Amino acid sequence: MLTGRSAARSRRRPGGAVRSAALTGFSATDLNGHQGTQSVEEGAAVIAAAATAGPDAPSAAFVGTTGTVPW
Known about the structure:
Elements (H helix, E strand, L loop, with lengths): L1 H11 L7 E3 L17 H12 L9 E4 L2 E3 L2
Parallel strand pairs: 1-2
Antiparallel strand pairs: 2-3
């Protein structure tokens, strides 16, 4: 809810920030007994890509390992 509101606000302002939610997937960690389906590095890559996306990146979007996830 907060991501959607922030994104709607940023669209109304010229030069507004791009806001998205990164869906990192189910990474194998100590927390889940390494039962995840991907490595921590694969999950972190989604966050890094979202954090370094340019101003033309989709705003008010969920970004996952396969790209933008519809909602």
